[in-house]
Amino acid sequence: MNVLRLPRPELPEIDFEKEMVVAIFMGERSSGGYGIEIINIIKTEKQIVIKVEEEEPPPESLRTMVFTQPYHIVVIKRYSLPVVFQHP
Questions:
Q1: Is residue 62 predicted with pLDDT exceeding 70?
Q2: Within a domain: residue 7?
Q3: How far, in Å, CA of 33 to CA of 55, rounded?
Q4: How far apart are CA 25 and CA 35, in angstroms?
Q5: What is the number of structural domains in the chain?
Q6: Does residue 6 lie within any of the structural domains?
Q7: 66: closest CA among 25, 23, 29?
């Protein structure tokens, strides 16, 4: 589904020589109330660990009945280490 946003937001300036983009996507959900977030980024000697937290609506909660596609995108310092995603 394409969503047209007017006015079009400014694109962020990203220097890909010094920065990289980390993105997580939860996929399509059948209602509102879902979320996903990068909660911590840890650099070790061998890898970059991206800690992720997912949220689901409580079973009997009221929520919007619309398809959603939760995501979170951040820009971090560029590393040549492998990136590993962790979520409980």
A1: yes
A2: no
A3: 8
A4: 9
A5: 1
A6: no
A7: 29
The residue range of the domain holding 74 is 19-86
Share of the chain above pLDDT 70, in %: 94
Q: How far is CA 55 from CA 7, 16, 26, 38, in A?
A: 30, 31, 10, 12
String of DSSP letters for 5-40 = -SSPPPPPP--TTTEEEEEEE---BSSS--EEEEEE
If 0-12 CB within 10 Å is exposed, 13-18 middle and 19+ buried, where does residue 50 land? buried
Contact 77, 71 (CB under 8 A): no
Question: In this structure, which amino acid lies at residue 50?
Answer: I
Does the pTM surpass 0.85? The reply is no
- Domain membership of residue 61 (yes or no) is yes
